Amino acid sequence: MTKLTIGEVLRGCEVGRMQTVGLMQMIPLLSDLEDDRFAAPTTALMRTQTYGSMGFKNPETKTMLLPLHAAYMVKEAAQDHAMSHAALIKGNKEKTFSTAMCVQQNQGGTIPYGAHSLVILPHVLREPALANREKRDYSKLWSSIAALNRDTGGSSAGNLIDFVSRFEKELDEFVAEFERVPQQIGAVILIGNRVMGVERSPSRAYFAAVWEPLIRECYGSEAIRLAKLNKTKPPARAPLRSVNSLDDLSAALGEARTKDEESAKGRVRALINDDFKVEADDKEDPFVIETIGNPQFFGQIVREGERVHYASLITRSGWSNDEVWRSAKAFAI
Amino acid sequence: MKQHGSAKPLLNLVMGESPVDFNLAVEPSFQAPLKDTLGSFLDITGTATGRATFYNSKEEQEAAEAAVHANLYDFDRHLYGALLTLPGVTERSRVLGLPRLLGHGDSLGILALDKKREVETENRILATLLDGVSFPRALRALVSLRDVKVNNARSRRIVMQTLFSPRGIEMRAVRFHGKMASALRHVLGKSASGVIGNIMSRAADSWQPHERKFVQDRVLRYVHGVDLPVLQVVVAFVLGKLTPFVTANAATPIISAFFAARKDLTKGDKLPFEVLEGIRSTYHRSLPASMVLELTQKNLTKGQQIRLQRTAEKANVEVAFDPARYDATQLYIYAFERGMTDEIRQALDSKAKAAAATLPFRFNKLAVIVDASASMLGDKTQRLRPMAIALAMSDMLQHVGTAKGQTVGGKMNGGLMQPSGDTSLAEALVIALKDKPEAVFIISDGYENAPAGRFADTVERVRGLAIMTPIIQLSPVAAAESAGLRRLSPKVASLPVSNPAGMTLPLLREMVQADVVGAATMLATIAFRALWQQKTIQ
Lengths: 333, 538
Description:
The complex is a heterodimer. Chain A is an alpha+beta fold. The longest helix of chain A is centred in the middle third of the chain and has 25 residues, at about 205-230. In chain A, helix 5 packs across helix 6 (about 205-230). Chain A has nine helices and 20 strands. Chain A starts with a strand and ends in a 6-residue tail after the last helix. Helices cover about 50% and strands about 5% of the residues of chain B. Chain B is α/β, with parallel strands linked by helices. In chain B, helix 1 crosses helix 2, helix 13 runs parallel beside helix 14 and helix 14 (about 275-285) runs antiparallel to helix 15 (about 290-295). Classes of the chains: A alpha+beta, B alpha/beta. The interface of A and B includes residues 18 and 21 of A.
C-alpha cells in the first residue's frame, strides 16, 4: 500500500471564492490541469438484467469514468439501482457490475438499456455503500435508506425515491443557489462549517456533468437530513463592521470577504497533510481505481501513475461525533 | 453625514382625466385585503407564464393564478376587467379573465361606473382583451366557457366574432377546427349545430326561407366582413359536414388544399406547416419531412420561423426571419441559440427605445446592475429566459436616463453575456452608489451566495449612512406566492418582471402598498383612458 495526502490528491488546484447559502458552503477548486481522455457519464447507456447487477454501454471512444456511487432513478416501473464504487469502461465497450445495489425496495422490474438520468447517492448512504462494495447482495443498502427516510419524516422503507420526491423543491434550490464557476474542476463541501466532502474531476467538462447530482442529491440531501435532525446550524458569515462612508464600506466588504476566505482556507488547510491508506481496487490501463481512507475521510480516486485524475472523498459519519473531543485542549500541567 | 439621493416618489405619472365617470369607494376594513389582492394581482398578471419555475410546479402556479383572479373579481368585476387591459399584463392573464367576464358572477362592486357607459365599458374591455391575445389562446378561453357553463347572448356574439373574424379565417379553420367545433357546439347547442352544419354545407341558393332564418339568427347576424360562401364552407368544415361543396370549393382554396393534399402532398403548399406535416405523416409517410418545410415556408408563423431555423438549415431550406417581428426576450433567446447578428442587435436597440418610451418615468442618472451568474440560466424548461429578460431590461433602462451599467459574473461570448460564475452583488451596489445615481436597478433572480445575506448587510450600512437612493430589484422570474419572489434585502423594492415593457405594473405595485385606494383609482383611470382609444365592439 502506498501513502497519499489531500495535498497530493488536489495537486494543481487553487481555491476559488467560497459560496455560502444557508447551512452549506462550497469552496470551488480551480485548475488549469485537465485531461480530456475521460468521457463524462452522461452518455452512458445503463440497464439492470437481474437485481444487484448493472450493465453499462459506453458509446464514446474515450474511457468512461462512472463517478463513485452513480445511481439511477428511472421513470419506468423498474427497480432503481446504484453502484457501490466508481468504475471505468473502455471506449465502445460494455461492462457489468454484480455488486450493485437496489435503492427501491418496494418496486420490482428490471431497467432496459437507456440514457437514464444520473444522480449520486445521498452523502449518508455512501459510507455503507463503499464499505460493502464487494458484497453481492442487492438489498445491502435498504436499511440505510430506510433510516434516511425515517430521520427525515418519511416511511421506513428502502426507497430512495421517497426521500427525493419529498424534498424535490428543496433539492432544486441547491442547484440554483450554488453556481459552478469558470475553471472549476472540483469542490470542497462544508455543512454547518464542517467539511463533508472533497470532489475532484479530470476536467471542467466532466465536473459540469456531475455537478448537479453532487450538489443536489449527494450533499444537498445531507444538509436537509442534518437540518431535520437539528444536528447543525448555519455558519456565521464574517460580520460587516460599521462604516463612515461608501469608500469605507468598500473596504469593510473586502475585509469581510478576506475573513470568510481565510476561514474556508483554514478548514481546507487543516486537511492537507493528513495521510491516506491506499488499496488498489480495479484498473483499465493506464488508469487505476483505488479506495483510500483515513480516520476522517474515505472514498475512491482514479490515478495514472502519481497523477490523480478523479477523487470523491466523504467524511466518515463517526468523525463529526468525535469532533468536540478532538477540538478540546490536550491535557497539560 | 451627507445625504444624497432622495426619497421622492419613483413615479410621476401623467394620468389626465378618465373618459368615464366612476367612483371607487373602499370601506376601511376592506383596504388591507384589497392591498393584498391588488398587489398579488399586479405581480402575477405581469409575470406568470403558467410554466414551472425553479421554485414552483405548474400546478402550484395555476392554482395561485386562479385564486388571484377570483379574489380581485370578487371586489369588482369592472375594476378586474379594466386592470386586465393594462399594458404589461401577460396574454395568458388576459385570457384567464375572459370566461369570468363573459359570465355574470356577482362581485362586491367597489367601483361604481356611470350607468350610461357601463355596457359600453364592458364591451370595450372584452374587445381589448381579445384584441391583444393570439387566436390559439383566445380559442382555449372560449372552449373553457363550456366548463364554466357560460352561455349567454354576449358570449355567443364573442365566440362567433372571434371564430369567424375575416382575417385568416381559412387558415384558422384548418389549424384549429377541432377546438373551434367545441366552442361552436357549446354556444349553438348540439342539435342546432347539426342543423346549421347541414344547411351550410349546401349552396345558399338551395336554402329554404326557414333555413335561412335559422342560420341568420344563430350565425350570420354576428359575423361581418366575410363572404357568405366562405363562411358557409368554414362553418360546415369545422362542424364536420364534408360535402363536395365544402371540400372542393373555389371560394376557399386553403380548405380545398387541405383535402387535395391527402392525395397529392404538393397541393398543400397553401397550408400551415404543422397541418401539412400532419397530412404527410398520415397519408404520405414515405415522403421526407423536409418536403413539408419547403412547401410551406412562406406560411410559417413568426414563432415557427424562429423555432425552425435550425431544422431549415439542416434541410438546406431558407426560412425568412425578421427580427423586427419578435419581442426583445425572444430575440435574445434566439441569439443565445443561434448567435448575435448586427440585424438582431439593431432590432434589440429599437425595441429598447420603444419600450422605454412607454414608461411613465424618467431619471437624469441611474445605475443598472445585471446579475449574470450561473443561476440566471433558469430552469430546464425556460433555459436562458431569465438572462434574456435581464438583458432586455438592461437595454431598456439605458433609455430611461443616463445609465451606468455593471455586470456581476457572466462572460462575453459571441457578443452576448452568458451566465456563469457566482453572485456577489454587494460590491457592485457600493460602486454604483458612489456615482450618486437617482436610483439603482438590480436585475437579479435574488440568488446570492458570496455569501448569502451580504447584500442585505450592505443595504443596512448604506441606509445607516443616510443614503436613501431608491434601490429596486427586478426579478426576471415569476412565482406562485408573492413570498416566492427571492428578495436580496427586505429594505429594497423587489419587483417581478417578465418583459421590459411590463415594468410599469410592478412599479405600480409598490404604490399599492403605500396607498391602495389612490393606486386603484390611478390604475382604473389609466385603464379607462387606454380603453377609450380602442374601437368599440359591434
